[in-house]
Amino acid sequence: MPRALNLRQIEIFKAVVEHGTVSRAAELLWISQPAATKLLQNLEADTGLTLFDRKKGKLIPTDIGLRIYEEVERIFTGVRQVETVIDTVRRENQEQLSIGVIPALADTFIQSTTMRFLAVHPTVQCSVTPMASQWVAEKVRQGQIDVGLLSERANDPSLATQSILEHSLVCIMPVGHPLARHKQIEPEMLDNLPFVSFKPDSYVGQKVQTMFAQHGIRQNTVLKTAGNPALREFVAAGLGVSLVHPLFVAGVAERLVIRPFVPDIPSDLVLCHLREGRNVKYAESFIAETKLEAQLILRSLTSLQ
Asked: Is 1 helix (H, G, I), strand (E, B) or coil?
């Protein structure tokens, strides 16, 4: 009478199909190669099926082996889905707050904001994940994160959205730059001037491109970047000037010259959360602390202009 299959046999079978050798499969499952070989032999003996062809030291799944693998993979996918549900339930039963943030603010600003929040809620475990703005709202909508910090409002009635700080873009430049002698910067001053830009598909990048086009100014872009830390560092190093939301320079303002830009280019940063989310209390508290931190940073930057 054949023995019943066991999970370890199935695991080694799956690993060998995916990685091609018993040695690699054994390594991934933290067992010895002889033990892995024995498990595989027992599986074939117990099923009475030839699951692999042996060719030049590699195990090639037979057609039968591939059919069985498809079913095994389907089962393991189901197990992973159960693990995801378990993780979600565990999060719901713990004091946690997951935060999604656009890369432009995934450094000093989100650090100081989260520290403010944790000072008020020391028992809450926070996680912070940088992601593109369009994904932030989607992850909040799906309940995968509790609160999202992004650069434009999400048009979704299921989301509660609050402005953190609506402010005009400011011009940043390296210390000692010729434009630093001006109290404010106007479009014609940027004509053909080396300019460090966010990528054109970004929220700020689109606004800046529109401004250059409307005023007939030549945009001499010397670098495009998706990340705010890189943009600031290149500006501080003297590569060019840029236009950014004032919160983007939090933590490095002393290494840059900041000037108002006219005419105004309004820019907003917003936080959103599910109206009926599981962590509404903590999300609203996080929003309150974020607004306070934004006002403090703006105040300090104003004093440097």
From this structure: coil
